Amino acid sequence: MYDMGTRKRALALVAQGRSLNSVSKETGVSRAAIRSWQVRLEPLVRSAPRPRCCDIPSPPSEPVAYTYLLGLYLGDGCVSLLRRGVYCLRIACADAWPGLIDACAAAMQAVCPANKVFRVQRQGCQYVTSYSKHWPCLFPQHGPGKKHERRITLDPWQQALVDAHPWEFVRGLIHSDGCRITNWTTRVVGGERKRYEYPRYFFTNTSADIIKLFTDTLDKVDVKWKTLNQSRAAVTISIARKASVALLDAHVGPKY
């Protein structure tokens, strides 16, 4: 229905960071067609070798980027089968944090450098997306249903990377499902009530397994944490001690 020139132009616009909706309006091509072209016109995605897919699997070639991406995936990511063995890795990033979107895209590109990374605009967020047949071997936590409804554990090679790069894993998790806020309180000093502010970090997730991966890693880097009492199903971890907040500020920092 569409000639190759139209297809390449539409994909080039998407590669520039344009949303499928805006590209569809400009070119007159349906969004469904553009999505299918993103898979069909990616021969390198199906042929490029990956260390995890070799006869003797080895860790990803960019361990720091991968460990950060693993944290993002466990928080706000998913892997979906499209067709002919090609999978889509999609990580949702809020529009409020453009730096986080760039960091996510950079990590995804570093982990699979032969694959294109797309940014698909949705209301209030962007889906940072890439297509490859290798995503399930890179993220063996992939499976049917929601993450909190199935068992989530790290393979030994993943745990070794987290042990080697714990702060990248913590940073990815906090960037996906966490935040840094400033709390305040008042105290009476010398008969005068004064306001005091102090920062703290939160991480919230419904999966008990992902919560444990987060807190186990915090323990290894000597960050003190506690669980907040809540009525909802999700669990929130709070980091408020001054020394622990200072560690997170040095290695994670607020979203941007």
Describe the model.
It is built from 11 helices and 8 strands. The chain has 2 domains: 136 residues, Endonuclease I-creI, CATH 3.10.28; 80 residues, Roll (Endonuclease I-creI). It has a 4-stranded antiparallel sheet. A 4-stranded antiparallel sheet has the order 5-6-8-7. The radius of gyration is 21 Å and the shape is globular. It is α+β, with helices and mostly antiparallel strands. A hairpin with a 2-residue loop joins β5 and β6.
What key attributes describe this structure?
256 residues; Endonuclease I-creI; 2 domains; four-stranded antiparallel sheet; 43% helix
Question: Can you describe this structure in just a few lines?
Answer:
The protein has helices spanning 4-15, 20-27, 31-40, 43-47, 63-76, 98-111, 135-138, 156-164, 166-177, 208-220, 242-251; strands at residues 77-83, 86-94, 117-122, 125-132, 178-189, 192-205, 226-227, 235-239.
In terms of structural class, how would the helical and strand content be classed? alpha+beta
Calculate the terminal CA-CA distance, rounded to whole Å: 43 Å
Using only C-alpha atoms, the radius of gyration works out to: 21 Å
Beta-strand portion reads 15-25%
Largest sheet entry: 4 strands, antiparallel
Strand arrangement within the widest β-sheet reads: 1-2-4-3
Q: How many individual domains?
A: 2
Oligomer: single chain
Q: Poorly predicted ranges (pLDDT <50, ≥5 residues)? A: 41-47
- Mean pLDDT, to the nearest integer, reads 87
Query: What is the overall number of helices?
Result: 11
Described by the principal axes of the CA atoms, the overall outline is: globular
CATH architecture of the largest domain: Roll
What sequence of helices (H) and strands (E) makes up the elements? Answer: HHHHHEEHEEHHHEEHEEH
Overall CATH class of the largest domain: Alpha Beta
